[in-house]
């Protein structure tokens, strides 16, 4: 029972992000993931091109 009370107290003390903050953070994560995907795709293409040119 003590654990449950502690959980509820912690939930009340937690500061949750606003909808605007959550949307902004989500957009940042998605855009960063897309940028990394593009970067690694370009690097992969270049490495394949170099390997096929050399071999």
From TrEMBL:
What domain of life is recorded for the organism?
Bacteria
Record InterPro entries = SecE_bac, SecE_sf, Translocase_SecE/Sec61-g
Q: Which UniProt keywords apply?
A: Membrane, Protein transport, Translocation, Transmembrane, Transmembrane helix, Transport
**What Pfam families does its record include?**
SecE
* Gene Ontology CC entries for this record: membrane
For this UniProt entry, the molecular function terms from Gene Ontology, in alphabetical order, are: protein transmembrane transporter activity
Protein's UniProt keywords contain Transmembrane helix: yes
Give the record's GO biological process terms.
intracellular protein transport; protein secretion; protein targeting
Transmembrane stretches, start-end: 29-51
Subcellular location, record wording: Membrane
Q: What is this protein called?
A: Protein translocase subunit SecE
